[in-house]
Amino acid sequence: MGLSILAMCDEESATVPPEASAADAIKLMLERRVGAVGVVDKQGNVTGIFTERDVLKKLALSGRDPAKTQVKELTSCWASSPFATCCNPKWTSCGTILIPWSSM
Q: Which strand (E) or helix (H) includes residue 93?
């Protein structure tokens, strides 16, 4: 039998709460060697994704302090986005790809 995609995934998802600072999210991305982190609320619901692109487009040249800017202010997908409407707490991250458990 071939290698399962789950075998390539980290045991723990790279996630931050919406209230986390952009600096903390960036540090986690660097530590985990990923290009994005999931944004997960206290109830375990995925509310969005914070990406390297968000850092570049919304933070890098904005003059905002990454230590004082919350991820929820910068995230690509928030509760009102089409992405968030299809997210559910049964999703996990594998690198920077979100994969629903039901499809594995």
A: strand 91-94
